[in-house]
Structure formats: structure tokens, C-alpha cells
Amino acid sequence: MTKSKSFLAAVCLVGLLACSPTPQATATSDDQQASTPTAAQAQTNPVSEESMQQKVLVAYFSYSGNTAAVARQIANKTGGDLYEIRTQAAYPAEYNQLLDQAKSEIRSGFHPLLQEPLPDSSKYDTVFIGSPNWWGTYAPAAGAFIAKYDWSGKTAVPFFTHGGGGMQNCARDMQKQLMGATVAQAAAFRGRANGAKEVDLSEWLSKIGF
Question: Residue 157 half-sphere exposure, CB side, CA atoms within 13 Å?
Fold first, then answer.
């Protein structure tokens, strides 16, 4: 397919220089409560014939709904299947408690247990993987999913939401964990309950071949 070739041509490895995170701006930057519930696991969207041939999965972890909103936008535009990464134990609702737990998990490299089942990796060629920016990097729940998923021969497309800190080390750190995958250009969007700005999202997807 011409579009698949365009996608592969647009793929590039991403590295970012570190920025010093500020707790209020970056530790829980997926910080605005969504007005609607997050999507159910493995929700299938209507797909075109071309999208079906690309076999796209949009997997995401979202604490308050902002990353979920962007994931739904991506799934709608790419015809991908939507999968919510859920932890067995819920994160604290109180902000300061969440900060403490998130920092502790990130510093120790902890991966929380996830709810099953996970999506069948053999069904997909391209996997968008989304996370909020937590303390300058991606959330441990997204790391737990990456660790369990078979990335051999896959194209991984990272995306992130933030509360003002931007991408920081999210893409660089996630790329290191995505062993065996071809990693496409990542994107970061300001966290909003209604998702990314349409122009920004469309521009990024166009650059990577969608």
C-alpha cells in the first residue's frame, strides 16, 4: 500500500534532552478530570479497508481522562482498535498521594500489575502507545504494558499528554524500553478533557503517514 510505505518512510527514532520537572507542572500532567468515562478495553472503531490492512492498535494509560481523549481521536482517524491499559490497584485520587506514589514507582522502576486480558500482539503491525507525562517521563502503567507486549517487527508510535511541561524525557525513556520495535516520531499534547487540538493532531499524523 502507498500509505504504508509513506508511514515507514516517516518513521524515525526520537531522543530528547532532559528538562528539570516541576512537581505541579509535570508530575501528574494528565491532571484535568474528563467529562466522560474512559473507553472500554479493546473497543473496535469503524475502519476503512486501507486501515484494516495496516492493523493499528491505540493502547493508552490515562489517570484522569486527558490521554484517553487523545487516544480516541487517534483511533477515529486511523481506524485503529482502542485499548485502555488498566492497573489492578487504582492510583490514589488525592493529588499529593498520587505524586508520592508516582515518584516512588518511577524512581524504583516499578511496573504495576495490569488487568487482563492484554490485546493479541499478533493482530497488529502498528501500535500507538499513550501516557501522561508523570514527573518528566511516562507512567509506570504504560511501562508495564510495554514490558508485557511482544514488539518484534512492530512499529511503535508514542504519544503523551502534559500539563505544561511538554514531552521532557517521555519519548527518550520510552524508546529505550521499546526493544525490537521501530519507533516513530513521538508527539506531546497539552492535556485537555476534549483531547488534542485538531490541527496539531492532524499535522503529526500526516507527518508519520496517516
Answer: 25
Separation CA 37–CA 34 (nearest Å): 7
CA 202/CA 199 separation, integer angstroms: 5
Distance CA 189, CA 168 (A): 12
The answer for residues whose C-beta is within 8 angstroms of residue 92's C-beta and 6 or more apart is 98, 101
Q: Express each pLDDT in 85-121 by its tens digit.
A: 999 999 999 989 999 999 999 999 999 999 999 999 9
Helix (H) or strand (E) holding 126: strand 126-134
Residue 167's alpha-carbon distances to 105, 134, 159, in angstroms, are 19, 10, 9
Q: Using DSSP, how many helices (H) and how many strands (E) does the chain show?
A: 7, 8
Q: Is the pTM of this model over 0.90?
A: no
